[in-house]
Amino acid sequence: MPRFYLGVDGGQSSTTALIADDTGHVVGRGRGGPCNHVSGPEGKAKFAAAIAGCVAEACMQADIDSNSVVFVSVCLGFSGGAEDKDRYSRELIRSEKYKITHDAEIALAGATAGEPGIVVIAGTGSVAFGRNAAGKTGRAGGWGYIFGDEGGAFDLTRRALRASLQFEEGWGPPTSLYRLLLGATAATSANALLHDFYAGVPRAKVAGFSKLVTLAAAEGDDVAHDILNDAATELARLAGGVFKPLFSLGQDVHVAYIGGVFQSEILRNEFVRRVLETLRCRAHPACFGPAAGALLEALRLDGNRSQLRQIPDEK
Question: Do the domain assignments include residue 145?
Answer without folding.
Answer: yes
